[in-house]
Design goal:
The complex is a heterodimer of chains A (about 250) and B (about 150). Chain A is elongated, with a radius of gyration of 34 Å. Helices cover about 30% and strands about 30% of the residues of chain A. Chain A has a 6-stranded antiparallel beta barrel with strand order 1-2-5-4-3-12. Chain A folds into 3 domains: about 50 residues, no CATH class; about 35 residues; about 160 residues, Rod shape-determining protein MreC, domain 1 (Thrombin, subunit H), CATH 2.40.10. Chain A is α+β, with helices and mostly antiparallel strands. With about 150 residues, chain B is mainly α. Chain B is globular, with a radius of gyration of 15 Å. Chain B starts with a helix and ends with a helix. The chains are: A alpha+beta (about 250), B mainly alpha (about 150). At the A-B interface, β1 of A face α5 and α7 of B.
Amino acid sequence: MIKARGKIGFHLLLQSRFWVIFFLGSLLFCIRWTKGAGYLDLYSVLLKPILPGTAQREWIKEGENIERNIRLKLLEDDNTRLRRALSLKEFSADKRISAAVISRSSRNWWQQLEINKGTKDGVWKGQTVIGPGGLIGLVDSVTPLTARVRLLTDPGNQVGAWIERTKRHGILTGMGTNRPKLTFLNKNSLAKIGDAVTTSPASTLLPPNLTIGIVQFVNEKALPSPYAIVQLTASPEAIDWVQILKNNGQK
Amino acid sequence: MCLQFCVITSPNWLKINGISPCWPVILLLPFSLNNPPWKAAFVSFLLGIFIDSFTLSDVSYIPSLLLLSVFWSIYGLHNKKIESFLNIGLMAIFGTAFVGLSVWIQKIIIYSFLRNNWFHSWSIYVLISEVIITGLVAPLFSSWLLLAYKKN
């Protein structure tokens, strides 16, 4: 009798919505206990392909650019302050003169550019000339209205350079082609193909950290010191406008 | 004035591989062929000073132009009828090669690092290109100038 009543009770329990209620209750308890983690995870997985939207992506990029610009400005200010403290040459973006190329001889015996700014505009011998891509050369001579720029590629032109990654200094010598030779001052250059070559941050003649080119070839076994062939990032053959940095030069 | 214009403007259609003709040779050749050696040498000296002022001041055109002007002048005195295109072209080619070699040798003497590797691809490239373009341009310009000198 008791057995039969138990069976009936169990049957009624199954028939009733007890298990559904129990299951829902447990689920609710789990959700509450995990603070909705499962839901949130599922929601994020579902939203992943469509986020961020086109508009949001633009805003994010813009925000990132603004942040980078502010950061760059802060770092530049910091750099200027530190360079002043160390009495090193300063590099200010404000002290630039834009000039047009009026004559070009970038592949001849003399590799030079004539630009349309001279002493009247504050251009002096020895000032640094840059173009899109980085350093191009130095002002060799000036007239009141024009200046002659000796290109980095000109045979006989030598400037100091270094590889930022290895912190190794060298002398960049023009070889007549767009690939000058960087002769290292150390026995072991540690340079690799693809390394960026820039002006030395400790240079007293050239503004610091100007891009010159990329290492294309390294000969570690060369005597008396290893050398690298550098592909210039600024192509003098294609540049119509240049900028003269007023940091250095002789009046 | 003409030389200055040619050197400064150096139009692209008158270039081969980015290299313009050797204008001092083109202008000096007809003058030297039509004048005595002393006069040709004097003019070549002036021309050398003039053209050197448009280049980076390390090596000079003057020695090679002086020698060429004297040689062409003597040649012109002995051969009165040099008016054919081929003659002028050949003389301009040899003259340009001589001027180019002179510049090359001066650079090697001045810059010690160029002595370390004697094969300078850039120099050979410039020399050959300059010789070709001068050889093509000279028969037109130099012949015309030579005829103009002779008429005067």
